[in-house]
Each structure stands twice: as C-alpha cells, then as structure tokens.
Request: fold
Amino acid sequence: MSTETQTGIERIAAAFAGSGKRAALMPYLMGGFPDLETSLAIGEAYADGGADLVELGVPFSDPLADGPVIHEAGTRALAAGATVAGVLEVGRKLSERLPVVLMAYANLVYGPGFEAFGDQLVAHRISGLIVPDLPLEEQATLLEVLEARGIALVPLVAPTTPEERLTRIGAGARGFLYTVSVTGTTGERAALDDRLGGVLTRAAASTDVPVAVGFGIGTPEQARAAADAGAAGVIVGSRLVRAAAEASDPAAAVRELVSAMSDALR
Reply:
C-alpha cells in the first residue's frame, strides 16, 4: 500500500514492522530550533541516518515533561518565531520520507478545538499525536476525533503507573505505547535503569501495539540495551537536540549520531 493512501495509524504500524532493526528508531526533533529551515534540515538528516519515524515537538512556554536541553531549545524556537503552523509545515515535508508523530502540549490542542486540530494534522500528513499533559480521563473525545481521521493518539506510561491504570491506558493506545524509562523529565542519563525490562514487560502486557521507550537514551549502547530489554521502539531526544545546539553544522552532527544508533539496533 502506498504511503499516500495509508492512514497515519497504518504508516506507524508499517514503520515498526518494516524497520529491519531489533527496535524502530524514533529521534526527537524540536520544531523551529534553531529556526524552521534548520529544523527541517535536521529532520531530513534523521531520515538519512536511518530513522524509522520522527517525533516532532511543538515548542511551548511551559513544557512540564521536558528537561533543560529540550526546554532551552523550545525557548529559542519560540524566540525565533516558531508557530504551530510553521512546525506543522516542517512535519508535512518530513512526512514525505517517514511517519511524523507530533508532540504538543494540551493548550495547543484545546485552543483550536479537537476537530480543527485533527483536520490540521490530516492536512499536514501527521501520523500520530502525543499530548503529555492530557490525562487518561480526558482522552476519550480526542481519541475518537483522531481515530476517525486515521491518526494515532499515543499515550505515555511510567514505571510508577499502577496496574489497573496501565491496563486502561494500554487498551486505548494507538500507534504505539510511549513508555517512559524513568520518573522525571527528559534528559540524558549515565545508564538505563536496571528495572527497565520489567517496566517494558508490564507495558507490553497491557496493549496490542508496539512499546517504545524514551527519556534518558542518549548513546548507541543505551539504544541497544533498550532493545535488549524488550523495547520495540527507541526514542532519542536530548542527546540529539544538544548535538544540534553545539554544532556548526547541526544536520551533519545529528546524522552521524542517528546513523550510529541505527547501526547499534541492527
């Protein structure tokens, strides 16, 4: 089936199934950082380096789930004039190469309304949506709106999520289940938690979609360890955003890192 005729949910499923790796690789991209044009070049470099999907962040003034590196990138993107419309256009262009999963805080979704926001996602060929500050109890309407448009609403679970709640979240997951490897915000860690395998086993038992893990994965060795622990997908954020911030040629820097991580997952 052509990607032109696939729904977003189908594109995500195909990316996980067809990655050719032990776990699909999903780098995080802060839309509009350091500016819209360069963020698009960084996303293209992700695809060149072997990414299977991309998580595209919309900068927000109060990003409660973001650690200092991604928070700073979002602040700089906003200062450079990034808008939701501009980030969605970056996503549309990247969607020509790989599925794009948008990460947006709830205010940005509630503002235009679920129907209008869902229509924008369809128009820009966005495959999925992550809303990290939207609790389970408020997801039903958005899930219905997105599912009618073939877009995956991707929920998050944490190591501390109680069993009964995990079961309910997993049952409603579309696309994949985003499993946070640690309690806290995004950011690089020296090592993965030894309990990650158990967290992933619990998450996988709660859902029929692939389980991807993020927060704290920043090296090829950690990406491989996440796959060893049972992750079907690996999400890498702060390390790549930091590399883009520090490099004179951000696209080249992140392409090298993504390529190394992709190789580690083969």
User: Anything to note?
Assistant: DSSP finds twelve helices and nine strands in the chain. The chain has a mean pLDDT of 93. The first strand starts at residue 24 and ends at 30.
